[in-house]
Amino acid sequence: RPGITGAHVLTREQLADFPQHIPLFDQIREIPEVVDGIRCNCGCAEQPGFYSLLSCYEGDGMARACPICQGQGRVTVRLHKDGKTLDEIRVAVDARYG
């Protein structure tokens, strides 16, 4: 989607109670256009206001406590660093979590 940024991904300050997740949220903030192209498979996609995996790292920050959101985020970041396309990342995430 046009105009996607990481501006709403939770910050270090907002993750004070979850310091172990700060690096993951920082990595998600760097590739919002990719994370926005992934459907979350934990069931949150059915909730109002949730559009994509990126939504799990914004607002109430469901990814702070959800191991599925966290796992999908880690896979997405790793595969993006490996040079995989969005389609390849989607296939891998869906194969593992779908």
What is the element layout, followed by pairings?
Blueprint: H1 22-30, H2 32-35, H3 67-81, H4 86-97
Helix pairs in contact: 3-4
Structure description:
The protein has 98 residues and is mainly alpha-helical. Helices cover 41% and strands 0% of the residues. The chain has 4 helices and no strands. The chain has helices at residues 22-30, 32-35, 67-81, 86-97. The longest helix is centred in the C-terminal third of the chain and has 15 residues, at 67-81.
Q: What's the shape?
A: globular
Estimate the helix proportion, in percent.
40-55%
Which structural category do the helix and sheet elements fall into? mainly alpha
Count of helical regions: 4
Strand content: under 5%
* Rg, Cα atoms, Å: 12 Å
* DSSP summary, beta strand count: 0
| Uncertain regions spanning at least 5 consecutive residues | none
What is the H/E order? HHHH
Overall mean confidence score, pLDDT: 92
Biggest pleated-sheet summary: none
Head-to-tail CA distance between termini: 22 Å
Throw out a few tags for this protein.
98 residues; mainly alpha; 41% helix
